[in-house]
Amino acid sequence: MNRRQQVRSLPLIYLLFAIITAFVMFPILINVFTAFKSPIDLMNSSPLALPKAWTFDNLKTAFEKGGMLTGFKNTGILVFVSVFLNTILGAMTAYVLNRFDFRFKKVIMSLFVVAMVVPFYTTEIARFQIIKGLGLYDSLGAPLLIYAGTDLLQIFIFLQFIEKISSQLDESAMIDGASYFSIFVRIIFPLLLPASATLGIIKAVDIMNDMYIPFLYMPSKDLHTLSTSLMSFVGQRASDFEQLTAAILIVMVPTLLLYLFLQRFIFSGITAGAIKE
Question: What is the average per-residue pLDDT within 131-135?
Fold first, then answer.
């Protein structure tokens, strides 16, 4: 009976997935088609119609006048440095919290939980003053410091992975004379690579899509990222819809390719975390 019910419900499930896919894909298709249309073609055709004559002039204009090369450079620096620091700091913090018993350990864990539930905008003024006091305002150092140290969810995910790694490995290494640092580098961190890859990809996508922090802490034009370059370009050419969609396409493609090529690491990391012993 359950089998028959499942078979009967399949058309409804497929219909639901088709509707969801349509809602997601239609805006993307409209953006892609519009980016390759001329102004005349755009006015005389449907948004979902293919371009009559494919043109790359919009992409060229958006790339050159939108400052996308600077955006790619700054975004690349932020992604690679921030993900590296964030992964190392998160893994080391989780290792210490899991393997060591020390005074105020529960207090520190509670503070991490509190920091996760407190809305970020309630602490923005204090954070801005700290960044300004450190002399990092209007420099790449400001978002690097923020991105490297503000992913508390990552620490808890690392904790779940480390809990599934037997402490007997640590004890065996200590008998052989290994230090805590050596244990972390040679034993713990290699076993955390699936989680590190998963969290690193998610963090990289978040950084590439973030506009708030770069806009607030790096207002200079030569420090624009892809997101802030796009926002600046939109402000300059609000009426040139075909060029705006071309700029959106340029910003969208790197994030989309990053996810498509590395999505297997995300799923393998989740699976590894579920079965690790």
Answer: 92
